[in-house]
Amino acid sequence: MINYLKKIIDFICYIFKFILSPPFCLYCRSYLYDYTVLCQGCSNLIKPILSIKLKNPDIDVYAISDYKDPIKPLILAKTYSDRTASISLAYLIWRYTILSKLEFDYLVPVPLHFIRESIRGYNQAEVIAKELAFLSGKTMLKCIKRIKKTKLQSRLSSVERQDNVKNVFQALDLKNIDIEGKTFVLVDDLITTGATLKNCAKALSKFKPKKIYGIVGCRVCS
Ligand SMILES: [Zn+2]
């Protein structure tokens, strides 16, 4: 009886949601019949991309696609503080990458400096990681922090990017959390040279990780 009532309430909520906020494809804006992010035509535009292995420390990095449409606008949306675009990106990561097949313990968002986070209103990596935690049933753990403000990586050359993020991440002292020897998934929206993920992974080495993965929306291919 309770289950039956719950189904009726869920259905009524769905109808209200459908009327108040009808679903549209986030790329071409065509009407959708359910709450998927992209229509079938735009989904077909996604070109899967091979994983890469970063060295020292070793990280296998998975992305949905190259930094191109239809995923690119979801990443650029952070410049005008569109939090829902980051949530949609998480759904696409879950659907189009290998993450749902990986064995891991914690999702760790790449931290933003607190000044940049307060200007934007949120950390896009954290929004993505939180949604992925919901989808996977795993825990998001904010166990590293950014200890100094850096220049935007997108404005720097490849060599400058390496120096820009060197030694800027630090592992937090976490008590009462079973964290040593675990498998971590570093989460970010975009990877270019991999310098940020590598420096985050160096900070994670304090916890003697069994394995570190990286999961991102797009990978910029040179
Ligand atoms: Zn579309």
From TrEMBL:
Q: Which family does it belong to?
A: Belongs to the ComF/GntX family.
UniProt keyword annotation of Transferase present:
yes
The terms under GO molecular function for this entry are:
glycosyltransferase activity
Q: Is Glycosyltransferase a UniProt keyword of this protein?
A: yes
Keywords assigned by UniProt, alphabetized: Glycosyltransferase, Transferase
Q: What is the scientific name of the source organism?
A: Candidatus Babela massiliensis
The superkingdom listed in its UniProt entry is Bacteria
State what protein this is by name. Predicted amidophosphoribosyltransferase
Listed Pfam families: Pribosyltran
Q: Where is the Phosphoribosyltransferase domain?
A: 126-212
